[in-house]
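User: I've been trying to design a sequence by hand for this structure and keep getting stuck. Would you show me what you'd pick, starting by listing the structure so we're on the same page?

Assistant: Good idea, let's start from the same input. This is the structure you sent:
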């Protein structure tokens, strides 16, 4: 176990961010040599420029004494090699609980990942005439700017990883201590609400004592470094890298929150009652994992069938796990105690070495996660562009949209009916020589119409939760936390922002629709996506719904059994991450907003009500000009009392 006492520097940083000691120290602002001059806190304006001698010494020295034609391909090769090793270590850290050695990864990369390299690329961008090359250079510059912050905070990341890995908690009803990383799985599996609350408490305790002091150091340091590189703020750097305008995105999110509020209230109340047997007012953050795992369909989603179902889904649309290079996507679905709960896709080499890590903790969320990561994997596996920058860098809003496209099959009755058919076939032993080979007998309950209705409602509630969290609460919160301009959200949020912990609690409890407690509020430093990944998620959710509506229109309601869908998707995947979600939406002739999400939400909600028998099915419109004519006269068969009425 690590020393859990709060170091003095952390305490100072905590007090700075909480605004407790910022006022008396402000007398040093603008005096670089002031003996007690503190590091700029997140409350203060950008730090003063560094002393002239230091700046002259670093910027004037050429990092790459060569032309752009020679230098840029060299930089791309070195950056690709570095990212490859980063991903490889991340894979072992994720799947085996391997310790993080991030700091080691940056040894020898000081020249590549430096401010001087960024200046060199900036110059090459201004000189480059070819728009494709210019875009690739921009992606590389964005990547190296974020890598610069990662290099300078690598030791903090290593400490965080080791602290998380080493942390264990004692739960009164279990004999052995439980690794911190295994607690989210326990939260999903635990049936008793009081125990879930105790697990949540134990997690909050680790966050408070072990993780938050390190996270606050990283937060302050990252903001300093963004300004040191010449960006106005960390928010400015992130917006440029993600190619996103945060202000309009927050406004879109706020409108969607308002327009979907009545359905969100209905869905959350219904799902809380159906899944956990409690009213919405008694719901807690600790119930979250279990709530969205849809426990009522646990027996219809056995862990053994998770991977075969994904392969069956791919089969239906004319795909499999083969890559464009002819290799297979590697899927690790082991249950090691040190393996991380959150699933992830690692595109080690695009398109030949693509890996997916998923922990089947049971329930719907694990299945949906596999489909999500499978969507990423297929996108990378069928990326055909040879430019490395478009294979791996740029905004990730597009790859997240393809991932969500697959994940969002689970609220579509068309797919659920297909899955119900698959279950029937498995029960009859049809797939024993193919998809379920080697699994022995798989016990699975049939999926009836009422359960399908419940499943659709659970998924819709979860999607709304995601949109409210990432497209609204998180964006506002992270702009405030990272020292961005309040103008970005002032049209939709006018509350206090100085106390970050309080702000987190206010925004997220409004987004979730129920109250958060003190333990939940302590997530205010760990529940932060680096470099505004939340903006990529928000755009991905919109595009995923647009893609769903588009495929439905182009290939029919049951596009899940149309083998032409796969080749069509491959044509969208071929350019990798070159285009943003906005550009792909424009290619489909629609703006990137929540119109499709709202339409799909309303339609699927109605379908769920019909499936559950809460509303009668709408009569199908008769085809004009093709009247079936009078029914044939009914004749009873020989020996039968009643005749069979033809339908
Ligand atoms: Zn993803």
């Amino acid at each position: 176990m690590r020393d859990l006492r709060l170091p003095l520097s952390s305490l100072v940083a905590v007090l700075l961010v909480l605004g407790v000691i910022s006022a008396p120290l402000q007398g040093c602002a603008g005096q670089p040599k002031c003996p007690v001059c503190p590091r700029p806190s997140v409350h203060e304006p950008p730090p003063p420029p560094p002393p002239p001698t230091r700046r002259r010494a670093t910027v004037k020295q050429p990092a790459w004494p060569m032309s752009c034609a020679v230098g840029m391909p060299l930089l791309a090769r070195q950056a690709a090699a570095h990212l490859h090793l980063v991903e490889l270590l991340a894979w072992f850290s994720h799947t085996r609980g391997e310790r993080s050695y991030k700091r080691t990864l940056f040894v020898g990369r000081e020249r590549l990942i430096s401010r001087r390299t960024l200046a060199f690329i900036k110059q090459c961008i201004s000189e480059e005439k070819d728009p494709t090359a210019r875009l690739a250079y921009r992606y590389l510059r964005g990547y190296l700017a974020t890598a610069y912050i990662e290099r300078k905070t690598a030791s903090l990341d290593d400490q965080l990883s080791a602290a998380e890995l080493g942390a264990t908690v004692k739960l009164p009803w279990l004999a052995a201590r439980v690794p911190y990383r295994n607690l989210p799985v326990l939260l999903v599996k635990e049936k008793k609400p009081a125990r879930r609350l105790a697990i949540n408490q134990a997690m909050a305790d680790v966050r408070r004592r072990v993780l938050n002091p390190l996270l606050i150091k990283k937060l302050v340091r990252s903001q300093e470094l963004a300004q040191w590189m010449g960006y106005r703020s960390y928010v400015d750097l992130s917006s440029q890298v993600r190619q996103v305008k945060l202000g309009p995105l927050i406004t879109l999110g706020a409108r969607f929150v308002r327009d979907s509020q009545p359905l969100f209230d209905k869905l959350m109340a219904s799902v809380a009652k159906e899944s956990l047997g409690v009213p919405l007012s008694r719901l807690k953050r600790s119930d979250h994992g279990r709530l969205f795992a849809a426990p009522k369909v646990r027996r219809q989603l056995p862990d053994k069938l998770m991977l075969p179902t994904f392969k069956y889904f791919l089969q239906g649309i004319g795909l499999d796990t083969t890559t464009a290079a002819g290799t297979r996507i590697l899927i690790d679905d082991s249950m090691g105690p040190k393996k991380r709960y959150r699933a992830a896709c690692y595109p080690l080499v695009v398109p030949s070495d693509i890996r997916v890590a998923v922990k089947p903790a049971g329930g719907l969320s694990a299945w949906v996660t596999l489909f999500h990561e499978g969507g990423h994997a297929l996108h990378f596996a069928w990326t055909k562009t040879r430019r490395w920058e478009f294979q791996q860098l740029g905004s990730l809003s597009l790859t997240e949209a393809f991932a969500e496209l697959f994940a969002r099959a689970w609220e579509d009755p068309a797919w659920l009916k297909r899955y119900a058919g698959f279950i029937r076939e498995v029960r009859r032993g049809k797939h024993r020589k193919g998809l379920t080979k080697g699994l022995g007998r798989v016990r699975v309950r049939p999926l009836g119409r009422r359960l399908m209705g419940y499943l659709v409602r659970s998924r819709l509630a979860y999607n709304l939760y995601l949109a409210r969290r990432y497209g609204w609460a998180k964006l506002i919160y992270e702009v405030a936390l990272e020292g961005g301009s309040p103008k970005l959200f002032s049209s939709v949020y006018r509350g206090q922002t100085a106390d970050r912990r309080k702000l987190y609690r206010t925004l997220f409890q409004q987004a979730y629709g129920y109250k958060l407690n003190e333990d939940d509020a302590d997530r205010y430093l760990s529940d932060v996506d680096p470099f505004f990944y939340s903006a990529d998620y928000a755009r991905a959710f919109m595009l995923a719904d647009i893609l769903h509506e588009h495929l439905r229109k182009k290939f029919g309601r049951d596009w899940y059994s149309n083998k032409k869908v796969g080749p069509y998707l491959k044509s969208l995947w071929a350019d990798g991450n070159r285009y943003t979600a906005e550009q792909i939406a424009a290619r489909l002739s629609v703006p990137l907003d929540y119109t499709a999400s709202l339409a799909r939400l309303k339609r699927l909600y109605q379908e769920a009500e019909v499936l559950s028998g809460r509303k009668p099915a709408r009569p199908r419109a008769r085809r004009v000009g093709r009247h079936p004519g009078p029914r044939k006269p009914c004749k009873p068969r020989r020996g039968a009392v009643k005749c069979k009425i033809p339908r």
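That's my pick for every position. To get oriented when you compare it with your attempt: The two ends are 71 Å apart (CA to CA). Residues 372, 376, 400, 403 surround zinc ion (CB under 6 Å).
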